[in-house]
Amino acid sequence: MNRLRSSIRAHRTLAAVAGLVLLSLVVVGAALFQPWRLFTSSSLDEALPAAPVSTSVPPEVKAAEVETPAADGPVVVSSGTFESQEHETTGAAQLLKLPDGSHLLRLENLASSDGPDVKVWLSSLEAGGDWFKYRSGRYVDLGAIKATHGNHNYAIPAGTDVAGLTSVVLWCDRFSVAFGSAPLT
Predict the structure, then answer these.
(1) How many CA atoms lie within 13 A of 147 on its CB side?
(2) End-to-end CA distance of the chain, in Å?
(3) How many other C-beta atoms are found inside a 10 Å radius of the C-beta of residue 34?
């Protein structure tokens, strides 16, 4: 220990540079890995979108001119249960068709880990298995996960062809890791 102290005293400039390099590595590592996220979680409970409100039709408008909604509420197109991949993940995913013809992804009773840059993807690849595959298939990025727990809605961009999108993936973009995935059947 005395040797180390005397060496540091003899090479103060080198010791200061080494200390700054070490401090820089710690700061960069913390920014990239965000280790505090191992101990954080968040919760959100979004309601399903409401059914359209019917309006009264003025008498001068003919009944044939009035469009009627296809259904009173969302229709489940496909659904599946999450399976864990790199992180423990549970809950269910539903691909919904709304009365206006648009699509929505609903995650229900989700429970997963927090992490840096976690996104919700619809993927053309099979759920589960080797998560390195997801970048090679077709996917639609629905944005950042809203919370680690609860019920969430994610709008699917207009014009997206949902045919062939067979799974939902919670994807950590920073480290190219799937936290969990759910098949849509």
Answers:
(1) 17
(2) 65
(3) 15
